[in-house]
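Pentapeptide repeat-containing protein, pasting as requested.
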Amino acid sequence: MATHRSPLGLLAFLLLASAPIPTRAADCGSTASPKLDWQECSKKNLMLQGSDLEGANLAGTDFSLTDLAGANVKSANLEKATLVRASLEGAHAEGANFAKIEAYRSSFANVAADGASFAGAELQRANFAGARLTGASFEKAELGRADFDKAVLTGVKFSFANLSRVDLSKATFEGPPTFDRAFMFLTRIEGLDLSSAAGLEQAQIDLACGDASTKLPSGLSTPATWPCPAEHE
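Structure tokens follow.
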């Protein structure tokens, strides 16, 4: 015998049939592996040195105090992840997305992160000593007192970034960096050749700390306040 649906029942049936299929939940219990999904998982205070997380979805993951030294996070998505006091020392992070991460006092020392994005990231007092960051983006990042000792910053974008008290004086710039509207209060640029840097304005230079060997773009002049006194924390 044929069955007949009421108009109300038919509407409910059609709504259920057209409802989107729920996305798969993150597999927080899985072990580290390439392309896994740890989105929004808690991975705090773990020893994950040398883990292979290439291409993994780590968006919003909490890695506070976690040791990821030597890990492979190439092309991984870490957007909005928490990396407070975490270590990615010596990690491979080429093309990784670190946009909007929280990474106060974290170590990226000697990281290989060419082409990575740190846009909008919170990186106060982060350690980038010896890091390779060619073509990386730090647009709108908070970098107060970050350490770039001997880092390679060729073609890096610092547009709209807060570079307060950042020491860039021992970094390497083999291609022009971009400083458009970056805040450069007491940014150390002693000895740097910034003659081809993009976006620099006199107001930024007046706030920064250079010396007689600092080379500036055409049209900018050395402030009378240079050199700045050595800073003591």
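Note for the archive: DSSP finds two helices and no strands in the chain.
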